Amino acid sequence: MSKPSLLRRVFAGIWNTITRIRLALSNILFLVMLGIIYFVYIGPGPEPLPEQAALLLNPMGSIVDEKSPVDPLQALLGEPTPADHEVLLRDVIEAIELARDDDAINSLVLDLGYLMSIGISKTQEIAVALESFSAAGKPIVAVGVATRYAALFSLPIAPVTKRKPPLISLKIDLFSLPVPVFLPRPSDSHLQAS
């Protein structure tokens, strides 16, 4: 067998170098993808919850027993469905019950500015859950439009007004934009509503 020519050996060496660089880059790319997957799905956990917080209950849409069926074609096209504007009654009641039993939750803030409709029976069921929350010694505060619904729930809900010191400090906006909530520490007894 004859030895390959010099030109052929030079091109073979260049080709082998390109192949090794390609393999090294594909391995590096694979390791980078594994790192991205790790940090996206397994990475750092959620931020720790504060020791004391308020549950903000702001249902958007209608409170229903069961969500409306969704037309698959409408869901595929990404159009809004009636189910997008429905909140399950069971979810609301479970949130109130879990907050009642959670020591980190010290109050409940009702913001019903985006509530479109709620039936009388659903109101009564939520009122029972709110009564148990209030019986646990935790205050319920109504914000904005929620003060109109306070009579529906038949509860001693403290509306936030400018005349007397509020239970919590709120910045209320006329257009129902998100409001920052600042809760007093348990030692701030001078802020408690009488």
Question: In words, what does this structure look like?
Answer:
The structure is a single chain. The protein folds into two domains: 1-45; 53-185, 2-enoyl-CoA Hydratase, Chain A, domain 1 (Alpha-Beta Complex). It contains five helices and nine strands; from the N terminus they run αββαβαββαβαβββ. The chain has helices spanning 6-42, 72-77, 89-101, 120-135, 146-153, and strands at 53-57, 61-64, 86-88, 105-111, 115-117, 140-143, 158-159, 169-170, 181-182. A four-stranded parallel β-sheet has the order 1-4-6-7. It is elongated. The N and C termini lie far apart (105 Å).
Termini, distance in Å? Answer: 105 Å
Low-confidence stretches: 159-194
Could you say what the CATH architecture of the largest domain is?
Alpha-Beta Complex
Strand content: 15-25%
Whole-number mean pLDDT: 76
- What structural class do helix, strand and pairing data support? alpha/beta
Number of helices: 5
Q: Radius of gyration over alpha carbons?
A: 29 Å
> Helix fraction?
40-55%
Q: How many beta-strand segments?
A: 9
Can you identify the CATH superfamily of the largest domain? Answer: 2-enoyl-CoA Hydratase, Chain A, domain 1
Strand order within the widest beta sheet: 1-4-6-7
Shape: elongated
Largest sheet: 4 strands, parallel
Assembly type? single chain
Q: Order of SSEs, N→C?
A: HEEHEHEEHEHEEE
The level 1 CATH classification of the largest domain is: Alpha Beta
The CATH topology name of the largest domain reads 2-enoyl-CoA Hydratase, Chain A, domain 1
Number of domains: 2
